[in-house]
Amino acid sequence: MDRMTEISKYLSKHLRHRPERIGVTLSPGGWVDVDELLEAAARHGFPITRAELDEAVAGNDKRRFAIEDGRIRALQGHSVPVDLDLPAVAPPPLLYHGTTERFLPAIRREGLRPMGRHAVHLSPDRETARRVGARRGRSVVLTVDAAGMAAAGHLFQVSANGVWLTAAVPPEYLR
Predict the structure, then answer these.
(1) Per-residue confidence (pLDDT) for residue 135, from 0 to 100
(2) Which EC class, in a word (predicted)?
(3) The most confident of 26-35, 72-81, 156-165, by mean pLDDT
(4) What is the pTM of this model?
């Protein structure tokens, strides 16, 4: 694994799921001071330079992180409580979700649920959803009737990196 991938995985783990493990506290919006993060990472045996951090954030193919005003946060995917302060927006007619065949029976029964995250993640195009699903095996892409969900009162948000978020997707909106 290359260094930028290692840094990205480290950031994901500690900015989305386990900040307490390295002794940082996220603000209600998920932010932490960059210097505090770098000091904590060094204390816990994973030193990162500011240049490496900037490169990992800027070069991340999924644009998972943002740095603003000396602070950093993950853009979505948290399992710890955060309020990303994203407005509700009208979704495109169709969105997509990548998964694998082994999850299809449960999805057909229960729809898409956030599991350990705050929201279900949806992709704006089939190819992105296919890549997401392929991380866990042979990919299956589900089509979400986002327009139908919105008409029924379901809320959608979109993160800065284009990932669509919603509380859940009932099975009747999937094909």
Answers:
(1) 84
(2) transferase
(3) 26-35
(4) 0.75
